[in-house]
Amino acid sequence: MKPRIFKIDPYNIDHDLLKQAVAILHNRGLVAFPTETVYGLGANALDPRASAGIFEAKERPLDDPLIVHISEKDDLYRLTKEVPTKIQKLIDLFWPGPLTVVLEKTDLVPDIVTTGLMTVAVRMPRNSIARKFIELAGVPIAAPSANIFGRPSPTTAKHVLNDLKGKIDVILDGGRTEIGVESTVVKFQDGKVVVLRPGGVDIEDLQSVAGDVTLASETSDLANSPGKYPQHYSPSAKVVIVGNDSRQSEKVLLSAWEMKSYGLSVGILAKQEHADKYRKFKVKVLGPQNDARTCATRLFHMLREFDAKNVDVIISEAISEKGIGLAVMNRLRKAAGPADALR
Ligand code: TXA
Ligand code: MG
Questions:
Q1: What's the whole-model pTM score?
Q2: What residue ranges define each of the domains in the chain, with the CATH number in brackets?
Q3: Mutate to test the pocket of ligand 1, among 37, 69, 168, 185 (most ligand atoms within 8 A of CB)
Q4: pLDDT for position 1
Q5: Kind of pairing, strands 238-242 and 282-287?
């Protein structure tokens, strides 16, 4: 059965529609909802059977824990044991917003939500629909991104529908998401804030509040964390990345002509400044090279658009890893998979 789609105006929220969605949620239903990062697939986080449904719908491995979403900061203290001062400072500044904190969990959090870990990931989103929905639900909401596991995360209700129709009950359609890549996930270890996944909050901004912030390497101690699956966020097409240097567009063209000569259909994901050079190919603009925020908003959307055009390979230009550019490049590298090797 097709999910019911409730169109919600984020500036003038229809509470009756949200209450209908809440009733379905409390009946162990799955409700997709917009956040400022990407769409989430929500279930009652305090109900293990409801949360189990998320794994089934997404075809998500049972060892990949969910993020628990709350509507007020105080809810954090019921779900977690101790909040270190540095993490508290980050919360004070970046909540509500695209920051997820991993902390030791209390017994209130069912094991399935954390896939048996002693820790739980918590986030308070700032999207008005998400906030109101969680508030009306009166319970925390477990929600991963609302895509089939491994696919690019959804930034529109249509993306959710494409991946999950027949498997979920409701989609709250609040339009395109603002940030376009997922939240920054942090934990506290040995007195330091460690970033497990770069995302909507820039590392530079975390550093200005919490001092020394380290980025967990994508190869080291990331068991049970976001870097665990080397291939992720992938469209059906193969993704190839071309390094961000002065010969970038030359190298893109060389690769594109070479692949075309093998009979492959080529799509190029380009910086706005370079797009004209690639006229002979299917080209999509990621964004201006000095505007990583725009690139972030468009990334997953463009990967899905290339899939709709049935290209065999997407050649993507790398962008600078400053600010949210780090998250953009993290997602692009995962989309390319373990063997991507920058060209
Ligand atoms: O922006 C976002 O974070 C979106 C929206 C919907 O809030 N959600 C999202 O969820 O991206 P998901 O499930 O696609 O990614 C959550 C990541 C997972 O890769 C998981 O490994 C990590 O957070 N995570 C969850 N609980 C964890 C824990 N206890 N320890 C370490 N990592 C954890
Ligand atoms: Mg995800």
A1: 0.95
A2: 4-215 (3.90.870.10), 238-336 (3.40.50.11030)
A3: 185
A4: 78
A5: unpaired
